Amino acid sequence: MTKDQAIKHLKLMQSGARNAIRFKKNDKKISEEERKEDIEIYQDQLEALEIATKILEQPISDDCVSRTQALKELKESAEHHANDSREEVLLRRDRDIIRALPPVAPIRKVGKWDILACDLYMCSKCYAKFTHKFNYCPTCGVEMRGSEE
User: Fold this and answer.
1) Confidence class of residue 95 from pLDDT cuts 50, 70 and 90?
2) Are residues 3 and 48 in the same domain?
3) What is the DSSP secondary-structure string of 67-122?
4) Host domain of residue 46
5) Are residues 48 and 26 in the same domain?
6) What per-residue confidence (pLDDT) applies to 146?
7) Final residue of a domain: which of 57, 75, 90?
């Protein structure tokens, strides 16, 4: 499955969760308590699907470098300059520097919920408004840590 296919599949699943929530809100065959529990479960599933979609949609950071690819490029360059001893010394030094670099992990964006009203929250990064607080903003995907009380 490609990344685009996975995103399309996740969005279809989101649509299904939204439909299930709408159905449960009008389901008179179960008690009000069961209805609320079911809706909460579907909302949690919807949130997880939205987070997964946002993560997949995020562009790859230009700051992350593959150590393996850098070493491969150095090896190819060394083979190209095999007769130049000065170049070989520099390439060996560069290889050692690259091997000593710590691994790079992408930095997760972090935001917070700004409280606008009793049941209205706004993302501090994209300013999207919601009546429910999530662990991640469904619009921009930033991780939410706390809120302004």
Assistant:
1) confident
2) yes
3) HHHHHHHHHHHHHHTTT-HHHHHHHHHHHHHHHHSPP--PPPPEEEEEEEETTEEE
4) 1-57
5) yes
6) 66
7) 57
